Amino acid sequence: MTDAPRRVPSNVETSVPNVARMNDYFLGGKDNFAVDREAAEDLLAIAPEIKVMAVENRDFLGRAVRYLAAQGIRQFIDVATGLPTQRNTHEVARSVTPDARVVYVDQDPVVLSHAEAILVDSPQTTVVKGDILHPEALLADCRVKQFIDFDEPLAVLIFGALHFIPHSDDPFKSVAWLRDAMPAGSYLAISHVVFDTRPDLVHPIEEIYRAILSRPEDNAARTREQVLSFFDGFELVDPGLVYIRQWRPDNMLSAQVPEKVWMVGGVGRKPGPPERLV
To answer: What pTM did the predictor assign?
Structure first.
C-alpha cells in the first residue's frame, strides 16, 4: 500500500493510529495509513504472531457464524465490527440462510463511513453507531430501526474488542445487561486475547494500546478464566471456551499448537427452547 492521497471523511483522523485500520493492516488490507502501519509494526516487533492472530480471529468468526446460522439464527448483531473485509458476517450468514439480517455496530467514524458505503445496497444489513459499554442505547437503536425482532432468538457477536476495554469500565456488566435483554434461545459469541501463556507481553502490549486509545493506567489484560465470566448465564456449546484454533476447526491440522494463537473464543446459548440438532 502506498501513501498516495485519498479521499477520507472530514471527521476521520489520519495522523493518529487507529485500531481498526491497524487490524486491516494485519489482515493484508489497504484501508490504512502510514501511522497505522508504524504502530502495527511496533506491535509485531514485540509479538510477530499478532498478524496470524488477526487472520485466525477472522476464520473463527466465520466458523461461529456458520454454526449459528445452522442453529436457525436469522438475526445477528455484530458489535465493534471493525473495517469491512472479506467474509463479513452478513456474507457468511447468508451463505447458510439467505434471509439473515445483520446489524453492524461500531463507534469509530472510520468503520462507520466504510461500512455505510459498502453496505448501502444491502437491505438486510444496517449500520448502527454504538459500543458495548452502552448496551441500552445500542439495542434502542436496533429497535428504532425495527431491524431486529426481540421476540425471536438472535446472536450477539463481540470479536476482538473486549480485550481493549479496561477493567475499570467493567465490560462484564455491559455483557450481562445484553444477556438479560436477549430472548431465550439467543447466542453470545466472543473472542478475546489472553495472556496465560505469554504474561511477559502484558506490559509492552498494554503500553502501546494505552497510548493509542488514550486509556487510563488500568489495563485490559485477562486470563482465560476471567474471560469465561463473560458467559455467565449462558450454556457454552461444545467445545467450550478454547483457543480459537480449537473451536470446531474446518481442518484438524489447523488446530495444532493452539496456544501459539493466544486468543480464546466460545459460543454460549441463553437457556430457552430446545436447541436444534446439527
So the answer is: 0.91
